[in-house]
Amino acid sequence: ASLHGVIPAAGTGSRMAADRPKQYLQIGGHTLLEISAQTLLRVPGMASLTIALHPQDDRARGLPLLQDPRIRFTVGGEERADSVLAALLAITGTEDDWVLVHDAARPGLPLAAAQRLIERVLAAGRGGILALPLVDTIKRADREGLIEATLERDRLWRAQTPQMFRLGELTAALQQAAASGQGVTDEASAMELAGHPVQLVPGSPANLKVTLPEDLALAAWYLGAKEG
Ligand code: CTP
Ligand code: MG
C-alpha cells in the first residue's frame, strides 16, 4: 500500500482576522502552507500530496516550496471535511493505500512526530491520529456558565493532525458523515461515526494549530524562526 498526503488549505481564517487567509501568513520567509507541505514531503515514502485550495484563491500554485512534482491541487469546499473529501477523491490510489491528512495551519509538526504516527498505525494496521493529553483540569458548564461536572482528565486528549487512515475507509466515512448531515471537524470523528477504532498517538506542543493572532508568534518560536 502507498502513502499519500492531503492538506486542507481552503479556509478563510476568520478567527485569525489577518489581511489574508492564515495559511498564507509567513514564518521565516515561507507561508504556513509551504512549511506544512515541506514536512509531509520529507516523510519517507510519501507518494503524492494533494492540497485543497479555496475556489477563488489559487496563489498557492506559484509558491516556491510547492513546485514538487508529487504535489497536485484541488478545489476545496464549504467546510474542512468537504475540502478533505475533495482532495481524497482527487488521489490516484487504491482503497487500501494510506492517507495522512494534515492542516495547513499546523506548520510546527516535527517530522519525528509524523513518523511516530505512521509507525504506530502500520504496526497496528488501523487508523490513528496525533493528540496531546490535557494538562488543565476540565470543567463542563451549563448555559449560565455554572460548573456542571469536572471531567476525568486522564482520558481526555486534544486532537491534532496528521490523521492517518485507509484511503477507501476514510473516503466512505466522510461521505457517510456528509450524507447524514453530521458536522465533523476532523477525520477521526467521521471514522468514529462509521464505527472504526482510532488509535491516539502522542503528538507535540510544537504542532499547535495557528488559529488566533497570538498563535503565529508561538508557532514561529517553536520553529526557531521569525514571523514574516
Ligand atoms: N480548511 C479547508 N476548507 C474549509 C475550512 C478549513 O481546507 N472549508 C482548512 C484550513 O485552511 C486549515 C484547516 O482546514 O488549514 C484547519 O481549519 P481551521 O483552523 O478551522 O481554519 P479556517 O477555517 O481557515 O479558520 P476559521 O475557522 O478561524 O475561519
Ligand atoms: Mg474553520
From TrEMBL:
It is an enzyme of class 2 (transferase). Gene3D superfamilies: Spore Coat Polysaccharide Biosynthesis Protein SpsA, Chain A. GO terms for molecular function: 2-C-methyl-D-erythritol 4-phosphate cytidylyltransferase activity. Pathway: Isoprenoid biosynthesis; isopentenyl diphosphate biosynthesis via DXP pathway; isopentenyl diphosphate from 1-deoxy-D-xylulose 5-phosphate: step 2/6. HAMAP family: IspD. Belongs to the IspD/TarI cytidylyltransferase family. IspD subfamily. This is 2-C-methyl-D-erythritol 4-phosphate cytidylyltransferase. The lineage of its organism: Bacteria, Pseudomonadati, Pseudomonadota, Gammaproteobacteria, Cellvibrionales. The gene is ispD.
